[in-house]
Amino acid sequence: MTSSLRCLCSKKHIFDTLRTPYHAAVSLQFVRWRMHRGVPRPLHKLEKKIGPKINVEDEYEKTWKREMHKKYRSQMNALRSEIVRDTLHWLGMNKVEHLMASQKTQMAEWEESHKLNDLWNAEIAKQREERMMKERRKVEAANYQKMVVGLRKREIRREMAESFLGEYSSMITPDNLDEKIREALDAQVQHSRPLDNEGKPEPIMMDMLYNQVPEDETWKADSEEREKDLSEDPDDNDASYLDSDLGEEMEGMDVDAIEAEDFNHGDEAEETNDGQDKKS
Amino acid sequence: MKKEGTLAIRFALHGCVNRPFYHIVVIQKHKARNGRIISQIGTYDPMINQFGERLFAMSFQKYRKWILREAQPTKSLVKMLGIAGFYPIHPQSILHAHRKRMLQARQASEAKQQTEEFKETAL
């Protein structure tokens, strides 16, 4: 039996309490599952005999049972009404008056409770309105801030777009193609020009004249000096240098005829001396 | 208008394991045994004291007032009040006593019969 119990009762603490089939030393702890049919009954239930209920009715019961109950019922009804009458008499009023008084008190209590309820509702309504106003202000402030931030972002985007457009305003598109061609043809670009340390071309007179570059003061000083130099250029139509620099050999000679010969002779010499120049 | 519902006057079991103790309370009928009461009007101790008594205490003034407000007492309480003398004795208590008396008489007669048979066999 113990082996069958061990395999069936996997709960260890039940098996530990059962020592032999004759001594049902069952644990007194409450268990949540039903015992196996082989587990013996507890001691306090061994004497209890469960059997069918036997209704033993005597002649006395058969004759007097119904009448006793009828009598009892009538007595109890009478007693109940007597108790009500006595208590009303003891309270000093009739049943109707008692009912009306109770109704009056109940109505008064109801009205009082309603007034209290209305007061409480008014207080709570005030608190609710204050709370709602606060929340509305918060929401409005948040919306205003959002709007401001959005507008600021839009402005920044517009500025960035304009800056990009400014940089790319010189781009050639089908719309401004004709204009750009005209500009390119009309523009006079000087490629032989000095550069800064950064690699950008320095402005010169021609840029200033055609591209309207702002004039620096230093350049002004330089431009004035250059104007002076240009005015003193010996290549100008001023033949005074001839008189000063020429020697006695050129006295009495026709300078214009000599210059014309030199001019024409120079061209012929360049044409005929191609092979000799190369050899030298 | 205040609506209390159907009221009952009954026992509410308090105490601890192996020591019951009852409160006689006025309570709404649908509530649990130890639920929220309207008022307590008495007590009942079912354990026999040193004098062989089961003590029962109640305020009959309050009981009458609640009867006026249409509260219904339970059968066990009414039986106990019948035994106490406030109400007439309940038929079930009379029949219970009758059955117990008959059983005792039967057992006594059986025991007497067994002794007589034993005496006859011994002789």
Structure description:
The complex is a heterodimer of chains A (280) and B (123). With 280 residues, chain A is mainly α. Among the domains of chain A are: 2-42; 192-256, no CATH class. Chain A has 10 helices and no strands. The longest helix of chain A has 73 residues, at 95-167. With 123 residues, chain B is an alpha+beta fold. Chain B folds into 2 domains: 1-87, Ribosomal protein S16 (S16 Ribosomal Protein, Chain: A, 2-Layer Sandwich), CATH 3.30.1320; 90-123. Chain B is 41% helix and 26% strand. Chain B has 3 helices and 5 strands. Chain B has helices at residues 60-68, 75-84, 91-122; strands at 7-16, 19-28, 39-44, 56-58, 71-73. In chain B, strands 4-3-2-1-5 form a 5-stranded mixed sheet. The mean pLDDT of chain B is 93. The interface between A and B is medium-sized, with 23 and 16 residues. Chain B: This is Small ribosomal subunit protein bS16m. Chain B: GO terms for molecular function: structural constituent of ribosome. Chain B: It is found in: Mitochondrion.
Please sum up the structure shown:
Chain A has about 280 residues and is mostly helical. Chain A has helices at about 1-10, 10-15, 60-90, 95-165, 175-185, 205-210, 215-230, 240-245, 255-270, 275-280.
Please tag this protein with its features.
heterodimer, A: 280 residues, mainly alpha, B: 123 residues, alpha+beta, S16 Ribosomal Protein, Chain: A, 2 domains, 5 strands, coiled coil (chain A), transit peptide (chain A), mitochondrion (chain A), ribonucleoprotein (chain A)
**How would you name the oligomeric state of the polypeptide chains in this document?**
heterodimer
Task: For the record, give the distance between the C-alpha atoms at the N and C termini of chain B, rounded to a whole number.
Answer: 85 Å
> In percent, how much strand structure appears in the residues of chain B?
25-35%
**Which structural category fits the helices and strands of chain B?**
alpha+beta
Distance between the termini of chain A: 138 Å
CATH superfamily of the largest domain in chain B: Ribosomal protein S16
